[in-house]
Amino acid sequence: MQRTYISDIHRWQDRTVNLNGWVQRLRSLGQVNFLLLRDRTGTVQVVLNNEALADLELTTESVVEVTGRVVKESRAHGGYEIWGDSVQLLNTAEPLPMNINAPQLKATLDTQLNHRSLSLRHPSNQQLFRLQSALVHGFQEFLNAGGFLQVFTPKLVAGGTEGGTELFSLQYFEQKAYLAQSPQFYKQTLVGSGFERVYEVGHVYRAERHATARHLNEYVSLDLEMAFIQDEFDIMALETRLLQSIFESLRVCHGDLLESLRIDLPVVGAAIPHMTMDEALTVLREEFGRSDLRDDLDPEAERLICHYAKQQWNSEFLFITEYPLHKRPMYTMPKGPASSASFDLLFRGVEITTGGQRIHNHGQLVQAMQERGLDPTLFGDYLEVFRYGMPPHGGLAIGLERLTALLAGRSNVREASLFPRDRHRLTP
Amino acid sequence: MQRTYISDIHRWQDRTVNLNGWVQRLRSLGQVNFLLLRDRTGTVQVVLNNEALADLELTTESVVEVTGRVVKESRAHGGYEIWGDSVQLLNTAEPLPMNINAPQLKATLDTQLNHRSLSLRHPSNQQLFRLQSALVHGFQEFLNAGGFLQVFTPKLVAGGTEGGTELFSLQYFEQKAYLAQSPQFYKQTLVGSGFERVYEVGHVYRAERHATARHLNEYVSLDLEMAFIQDEFDIMALETRLLQSIFESLRVCHGDLLESLRIDLPVVGAAIPHMTMDEALTVLREEFGRSDLRDDLDPEAERLICHYAKQQWNSEFLFITEYPLHKRPMYTMPKGPASSASFDLLFRGVEITTGGQRIHNHGQLVQAMQERGLDPTLFGDYLEVFRYGMPPHGGLAIGLERLTALLAGRSNVREASLFPRDRHRLTP
What we know:
Two copies of one chain form a homodimer.
Chain A: E1 16-29, E2 32-39, E3 42-49, H1 50-53, E4 63-72, E5 80-91, H2 109-114, H3 116-119, H4 123-145, E6 149-150, E7 156-157, E8 169-172, E9 175-179, H5 184-195, E10 197-205, E11 218-227, H6 232-253, H7 255-260, E12 274-276, H8 277-288, H9 299-313, E13 317-321, E14 334-335, E15 339-340, E16 342-347, E17 350-358, H10 362-371, H11 380-387, E18 393-399, H12 400-408
Parallel strand pairs in A: 3-5, 6-10, 12-13
Antiparallel strand pairs in A: 1-2, 1-4, 2-3, 4-5, 7-9, 8-9, 10-11, 11-18, 13-16, 14-15, 16-17, 17-18
Helix pairs in contact in A: 4-6, 4-12, 8-9
């Protein structure tokens, strides 16, 4: 007999269906038993007499197959309940180390992550990762429609994009290899290889020793790169349209998720406000008394300037442009003597994107390396495409877990990773 | 002025457009010059007088911006040419180390891979990777529609799925870590975490020392796993529908790619033929004299049995079922005393999928580990979900580069990887 999902039972009123799922709760009232059954689409109450349960030991979270009739019941959640004929036990569950069927998970984040297979069963986490998947789908669909090619570039590399800091290293047969800290060199190479527009959804690795609520050592980067831009504002305009499109698809296709996660989608205006780093520093000094900042924003400054943007322009997004060149990687396109054609995008107080125009002239790139004390001969593979016709180009990267956490109002980026990897955590 | 793609110029007849791209060829006939311009959508001939070229040194593969009028010209490829007004040089190209504008790339595969940013510019490679991206898109869309959740699981893991062989290892701060050889444990955990149906498109790592035309040490695995199956035939039926859907979307949406790559799409019947390993061994012995095979197929046997399936059932696909249990990983569901509920899918002589039902009972899984000499205490994190209600489940993995190469008739899987990683290659 074909399985029916709980969300579909209303189509089968007064008929017998076969349901599969987990025992969320079982209450016995003399001759009658009430089993709350959960599958990936929802929950339903199954009414069973003692004979149907027989000798089954249905512990919480046991896996069962239920056969029964769909009965309209206005008092039931969803408007239907099941009058069960039989229950088959597919797999038992031992007593749980944490309560996962309360309205809110009460265990500490560390306990939740230690028992990830359990904490993920909580509806709030089921929905959070459905939201994350929808974000990725929105990213992919917008870029597919825009002629971007989805690519997969190596994470095992011979060198870092920045010369070797904060890299995990390993032995690759006879050679030393590193885990890629970004697909930067590869997406640039592919733009120059004639694809012009590429994107990648993939892991990146940072061997950073700090342990904060906004850093992971392995995370999913939503990367894109495109050729034939005029300047960084082309990339910023693309990201604006991209975010509009992602949020619109969430609104249209995933209203249920937004509602159950109580998410207020941010409004992305026709243009996201932008200010230069110098302007931001002036505001921070004059409005918030932060006269200690020189050429970068710390986490508190990011929160303050986002607060300012919300007050001033009613925007939860803010581009900071013209980052000081010396704070940016060597491939960053300069703008004037000390500034750069690069930007960050802040959202609800946190940086979620770094992007900008890149250098496309071979000589200029070699010189930029030398000015930073990097040896161009170590970047021979990367430099090749710049010798054989590299178009003007730029791109950006969005941190998936950060975007997910900020949207859903989770305070720690680990919550938005199925199996986070941090300074101390390599399991489960 | 907005850029126009070469594939769109027919919409702009007799009007002035702005084109961006690479100089594929430049011929001069006295006062007139013929520049063959290429962008990611195609090529077009630009007719220029000497003044328009001025002093520009337009070497092959230089990057230019061309402004000119679209003129109908029946003799031109595509029916139009551009009467150029002006050319702007955006970036120069040095003399190329290999000829990339011949009908066929003549350089050895090694040379092509060494100069990947150049060899990828050849139309055959542009198309190959558009095909690959379309395959992934077809995989994603079929599974999205089927309620599968796209997930991202860690590639930095504390142990191997098989106990530590053929793993790349690295230092993860104070701990020893490995690169995941498969998302197997994680996709099972997520199935048991209530998502029921998950898929992942991601890298996997095999530290295998052999260097063959069908192995990579880093490749993209199309993985899926689903709960509440009856047996491995549910997974095989799903893969059949999946392949039908992918090829149908190629046929409908990417006819141009199929034509230019000269791909004959395989026909996937309502059911792909299947035979047990025992049956396959019998055929190989009786039809092909291969009496040396015991409990597995070697590459030649895979080719022969595919040949047989083509002759017998006119199918380019063949499932081999009931692999001997001892040839399969410990999580494989047994079938009878020595066989297993697992399968391979062969396509055009090569294995492209391994899949099957998995053990879902905790005690049975622990015993399976012990029978193989694996210490269950080393698999504590993996085993947790089996203690708290794991449904019957199964899944499969498809090697993306193999599928791509086989479809396009490329003899070496490296050709179907943008930047392959093999026994000796870690660059570019």
